[in-house]
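== Protein entry: sequence and backbone fold ==
=== Local backbone shapes as whole numbers ===
==== Amino acids and backbone structure tokens ====
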Amino acid sequence: MLAIGGWNEGSSRFSPMVADPARRREFVKNAVKFLRQNHFDGLDLDWEYPTVRDGGKPRDKDNYANLVQELYEEFERESSKTGRPRLLLSMAVPAGIEYIDKGYDVPRLNEYLDFINLLSYDYHSAYEPAVNHHAPLYPLEEDNEYNYDAELTIDYTISHLLEKGASADKIILGIPTYGRSYTLFNQEATELGSPADGPGVEGEATREKGYLAYYEICENIAESDEWEVVQPNPKAMGPYAFKENQWVGYDDEEIVKLKARYVNEKKLGGIMFWSIDNDDFRGKCHGRPYPLIEAAKETLLTDNSRNTIDNTKSVDSRKKIRTQGVQSNARKLGTNSQRSSTTSAPIANRRVPSSRPRYRNISKSKTSDGDEEDREVSRRSYDPSSDNEDVEGRNTVRVTEKIERPKNRNRSKTRNGSTADHSSRRKQSRRKGQSKTDEDEGSLSNKLTTPEPPTTPDPGSDFKCEDEGFFPHPRDCKKYFWCLDSGPSGLGVVAHQFTCPSA
């Protein structure tokens, strides 16, 4: 599917377009033509966000719904005339309740959208004054009127969308394959809510302060025993890790599995990831590529119990446990300081790298049941492909066996900030992995197969890589090369040949 919009786009062009019926008609007409000419399956609208930011108007809420209705109706007309499957229509929706209520006519949008991509991460940003996990499933503290952090959770946002009229089976849960990092004000104060002195140092590959890809996080932990990993409550949120004055909160395999079980239990539509290339694509930390994406996919496919998720106390007696006081910095959703199974296993049962960091499993006695700075996308990223022609993607979840082709990942940048905070500064144009329910025949084992990353150059070409990145084929305009570091194989920068999506 083709996505249009993103954080950099803001509202300056969306708002006047949707306000003019003639311009909407032209947009709809051009959208159908472009999607069909380039063999896309549909359109994903990523306006961030109607009624706010860079020219947004109060009327955007109604006008946006008008655009969605007109797109759907034209997709239906085109399908009935041509006999082709109807083009799909989806929309990115922020996690912030204030943004949802201001800019999205949920019942009307729900009538015409095929699915709703929930950007359920960046509830907290690296530019807040205190450290916090940016994608919690539940709050750590008990649910009461003074626990403002309870609103800044995935469960709260999902419940709000359902109450507003969204269909559960249309909601796609977003899971991050990155962490939000901070520089601690005091190295001795590392718990959630501890004072922060700004964003964390940039990663070697992602090169953005306050943002680390999962592969950077897991490799850092594996390579140094100075990193300490803490589980505040594995049934509420992912772990965080710290070393000296650096602190990062992230999702690991266990919390991803729990979120996948949550999707099953709530009968949601599926899962998306931001982003595929931020996962451990080479499998350096866990012995297989894409451990987070695979964990979600396997859980969605194999967990049929639909049992209610229990997010009460979970303690591994073999680990040191301390009670953690959580400072709540959120006072109102969307204000300045707030802001893509089986039950989570004890940390002792998890795979630990040979260079062992220290682990602590911390649990409260009870928990509630209840965000694009043109960042440089990692040059170490890998796109799931296994031959030189069509590329079969098996790494996006909901669950898909569709044909996908490599996307252009030439240097874009991620946001600094939070989806619930319209005053924070984020700049990156977001991309989301997304796919539809797979109804093709085939064994479960086949669906769980992930192709290994390419390690040998294309033997039919004399093209040589001088550096990592994407490069045109010197003789065939319908093909291109992806130059990728071969990693542990020691082959250096290797050329991999692909066919352009529209060729």
Q: What stands out?
A: Confidence is low (pLDDT under 50) at residues 310-358, 362-461. The first strand starts at residue 2 and ends at 6.
